[in-house]
Amino acid sequence: MRSRIKPFVFERNFLILLTGVFANGLGGGIYSVAAMLLVFNLSGSVLYSGFAFFAVTSASTLAFLIAPFANYAKYKNGLVYSNLIKAVILFTIPLMHYTVGLNVWYVIILLFITALITQYTYPIESTILPLIVGKDNVVAANSYLQTIRESMDIAFIAGAGIIIAIIGTVPAIAITAASLVFVTIMYAFFTFQQPEITRDKSQSVGSAVNIYFTDLKAGFSYIRQSLIPKMIFSIVFINIAMVIMTTNLPAFTLIKGNGAEAVYGFYLASLSLGILIGAILSPKLKQIDFGKLTIISFAGTGVMWIGTATLPLVPSMILFCTGAISIGILNILVFSAIQQQVETAFIGRVITLLSSAASLGMPAGALLGGVLGETLSPEIPVMICGISMIFFSLFWLSSSVLRKLPDIDRVSLFQHSKAA
């Protein structure tokens, strides 16, 4: 049995990372349900859910400004201290709740701050993976991590609604904070070798600022002549559609579930299950031409999510799950290709620039979703998202460059190995 498992799985640092992903799955799964339900319960309005999603997606849009800072500290220290800070911030929610009381804007601001810190840790986790497992094992390692991540999301998001019904949203957020403390402790045991980054500790503030902007510019230069700019418009488009839908998901699921809060967790779990299936399938599908795979899978997603909006609860959840499979496939293949083709020093910046660019329209989408949900039926934004997936597929079909992309191992995302 052991011989069938890749050797890197038993490597100390990968096991630590895997344990951290598991713990984050516990805390993050509960947090994803509890945080948005807390905002909805405090305000009683879909519009405030839009404000909350606006805050979170704004942090994603600003990620490209934060990514260069990952190279100014040891990766291990960055992960340890940032997770600890997030834990402290989230512990203030139960503290405020049980003392002076909670305000919806206080919660929204904290959602923004924690999301901003996540934009710092995410590129570090992406950067250290090739250091731990080697670039030849990146696709398999990503599949392992994504499988664990989505499995935990399924288990804990599905149970989060039930947990929240028993203990409430605020204690549920305290569980997330405790999980982050555990992650902090685990990451303190990392022993991987970080490439040496030469910095003059005696440099002036002005010199440090110049280096920061030089690093930022280098990230832009790296992707300028790649395939990324050709892909980004369509990715921005579907991200806007996705956030319009997710902003309305709490209200949408309350309608489908006749007022049962647990149903929101079930829908998020079905989304995670679909992404998990996509992550598991991605190594087996990487031999298929990437252009054709994207076109066919996202056209299917669009049809299924239109069904999600119109059908009763059980078939709606099933179609919501199967429609998410394409997202899991796209995530694994694209980010694995970046990790394989980009120099270690640039991985974090390239992934963050891609994520930031893809998030450009999401804050506006969150506000638009809030307005649509407040003025129309919540089913309408879900249907809009499904139709948008079909338009995404048609855009790739109309582009000869994107339509003719070969299998992901032969897609040359970057035409250079060094920044210009």
Summarize this structure as a short list of keywords or feature phrases.
420 residues, mainly alpha, Growth Hormone, Chain: A, globular, disordered C terminus
Describe this protein's structure.
- The chain has 420 residues and is an all-alpha fold.
- The protein has one domain: Growth Hormone, Chain: A, CATH 1.20.1250.20.
- 78% of the residues lie in helices and 0% in strands.
- The protein is built from 17 helices and no strands.
- Helix 2 packs antiparallel against helix 9 and helix 9 packs parallel to helix 15.
- The C terminus is likely disordered.
What is the tally of helical segments? 17
Q: Could you give the order of the helices and strands? A: HHHHHHHHHHHHHHHHH
Instruction: Name the CATH superfamily assignment.
Output: MFS general substrate transporter like domains
Number of domains: 1
**What are the low-pLDDT stretches, counting only 5+ consecutive residues below 50?**
201-205, 416-420
Shape: globular
* Overall radius of gyration: 21 Å
Which architecture does the CATH hierarchy give at level 2?
Up-down Bundle
Specify the biggest β-sheet. none
Distance between the termini: 46 Å
Helix/strand-derived class?
mainly alpha
Q: Which CATH class applies here?
A: Mainly Alpha
Overall mean pLDDT stands at: 79
Q: Kindly state the number of beta strands.
A: 0
CATH fold topology: Growth Hormone, Chain: A
Helix content: over 70%
Portion of residues in beta strands equals under 5%
InterPro entries: MFS_trans_sf (IPR036259), TM_effector (IPR010290)
Membrane topology: Multi-pass membrane protein
Protein name: MFS transporter
Organism: Alteribacter lacisalsi
